[in-house]
Amino acid sequence: MIPVVKSLSVERAVTPSADKFLVGKPTQEEAEAAVRTLILWAGDDPSREGLAETPQRVAKAYKELYKGYGEDPHAILDRVFEEVDGYQDMVLVRDIPFYSHCEHHMVPFVGKAHIGYYPSQGVVGLSKLARVVDLYARRLQTQEAMTAQIADVIEEALKPRGIAVLIEAEHMCMSMRGVQKQGSSTMTTQYRGLFRDDPAEQVRFFTMVKSAGL
Predict the structure, then answer these.
(1) pTM of the model
(2) Does residue 77 fall inside a structural domain?
(3) Which end of the chain is more exposed for a tag (fewer CB within 10 A), N or C?
(4) 101 labelled catalytic
């Protein structure tokens, strides 16, 4: 059977868009000059051989690391498969790797996201959930905000009966600086619908996430 694909018309919540951040956006040359200033402030010489092209490399890397500002999460989730032979149980995508940058110190935090939901109007392609995680990760973030943003956009687009998001990550702002506690991890969750209302569903989700050999 060929799946029926439906485009959902979603009333979108006010979400930071690329346009919001493009007002007064610095030029490439200004960005490179800022990197040179930081190199000088750190105590090195930006004109020496090893650093001469670093400003250009950093500016190019930033375009990739923070490309999530220029992407629309609703566009990723606008195609829903309705013909799933009456499937009503949990859909779980676990161990989605990501890396992001802490908005407080602009150093990385790295981890995995796990997303579960109970379909209502249909299901979305599994890779789309991973793309949503990647989109929000490629912005300056806090783990708490990122967890809520992922839950929000999936709830808006799919209108599932329940959604659960669990993120676990190690923050370099704790490992490399400050208290310097390597290996410590942070876990954040968001539960909506069935997951919020029924603690047994939260236990089932967590058990499935942590079970080996599924």
Answers:
(1) 0.83
(2) yes
(3) N
(4) no
